[in-house]
Design a protein that fits this description.
The protein starts with 11 loop residues before the first strand and ends in a 9-residue tail after the last strand. It is built from 12 helices and 18 strands. Strands 4-5-6-10-7 form a 5-stranded mixed β-sheet. The protein folds into 2 domains: 171 residues, CbiD-like, CATH 3.30.2110; 172 residues, no CATH class. The radius of gyration is 25 Å and the shape is elongated. By secondary structure, it is α/β, with parallel strands linked by helices. Strand 14, helix 6 and strand 15 form a beta-alpha-beta unit. Helix 7 packs across helix 12.
Amino acid sequence: MARKPEGKLRKGWTTGACATAATKAAFIALHTKEFPDPVTITLPKGQTPSFALTKEQLEDGFASASVVKDAGDDPDVTHLAVIQSTVRIGRPGTGIVFKAGSGVGMVTKEGLPIPPGEPAINPVPRQMMQQVIEEVANYHQVSKDVEIEISIENGAALAEKTWNPRLGILGGLSVLGTTGVVIPYSCSSWIHSIHRGIDVARAAVYPHVAAATGSTSEKMVQDLYGLDETALLDMGDFAGGLLKYLRKNPVPRISIAGGFAKIVKLAQGNMDLHSGRSQVDFSWLSDQAALLGGSDRLCSQINEANTAKQVLDICSLEGIPIARFIANKARNEALAMLNNDKIELEILLIDRQGALIGRSDFQVSDYD
């Protein structure tokens, strides 16, 4: 993830908000022959942003409008993407029907908020679009039987940078957003993807899933257990986001894999493992080495170390099993956060070459 810049950050708008604005503009034009520009919508929390249109098309029976997504200062993969809504008059009695245009994915797996066979347009964006259709239809006294087709320019290529392929959302991006507002560096989209990954794994009834801090750790744990790709969760730095969701949405067994520095931070009780939000405590590591019989000289070297890898190398030379010890400490902290005695959990430590250097036993929480 990109480093958060200094100073006050500018908020942005979700793909769902942009799709809603484009839908409202297209539906109005379908009945008035004019596109409102800018077009104003009401978000779930009452904000009323206005959106400029970048493309307009009006033909017999349909209208299209496009909005360029502004994600503010968030490093969103869809920042500046062109979101287009094409609204067509539907057959009487069909109600509001959603279609996936170019660049919008289709759901193919169970466990997501939208069932297989439907466009990957999430519930809140659907509700927002339904609301503007009803609002405009009531004002102009016209039918609410419409087809809404959402497209995202270059969406299929952008989707390859997201979790969508792993979640079984094929062919493009998802139309997301629960508030309509993007909070810069809130990490909500990543945590949302972790949650959806858990949902898909639960729907597939996998007995064992794995969460990893990065690609090297993920490959090791996948090879170790022969796990299906859908059973792999890209946890990144968000151990807390993973464990809190699992507490209420359990799986039978989970392995958490990561590099030594990340797992040390988890063992210290940190649930956000990002380098900007938690640090390796070398004094704490020195104390742990002492508990394992480390010499005064070794503990002093750990106190003066610059990196976690340095600590690992120092302990290895003196035969101190720091990796397994840290794995067990991290497992205990994770279990305390998990607080669910139906889930077995283990921690795996991986070096930079992808080799397993330490692991805990599987254990369940005994907290209440």
